[in-house]
User: Fold this.
Amino acid sequence: MYGPMTTAQKTMLALLALVVLGGVGYMLMPPQVADEVGQKRARTVVEEFGRRLVFVSLTGEPEMVRNAIEENYRDLVTADLLETWKKAPSTAPGHFTSSPWPDRIEVSETIANEDGTVTVSGNLIEITNATTTAPQAYVVTARVQRHFSTWLISEFSGGPARN
Assistant:
């Protein structure tokens, strides 16, 4: 039915196997200090997270709050952190009032850790509609880790004090 493989076919098959094994090996290799690309990706994740904070109101019905947390954070945080926030929504970042509200996170520093994670520090900026009110800034810190081919927030702390 099929004839013997040619040398070119054998070479292509061998190259394909090397590419597949190399990709799998890369995803499974032990954590290493994040390189510059990893730090940039971690920064991007935290900045996107900061843009989504406005969409998570923590004052609604518990089921609505959990849904907002799931919808807005699921592709930016680890499954463990997402579940922690869904079980205790008042511990999740978001907003409690209509004004001020979180506008963004301005990243000031990224630090590659020896365990392969990246610590991202910055300021959570809250704004209001009032033109006479200066934006408020609160220090925040996130630990971001590589999960296969993506980067996810595994820890988040800081922000405005909660009553």
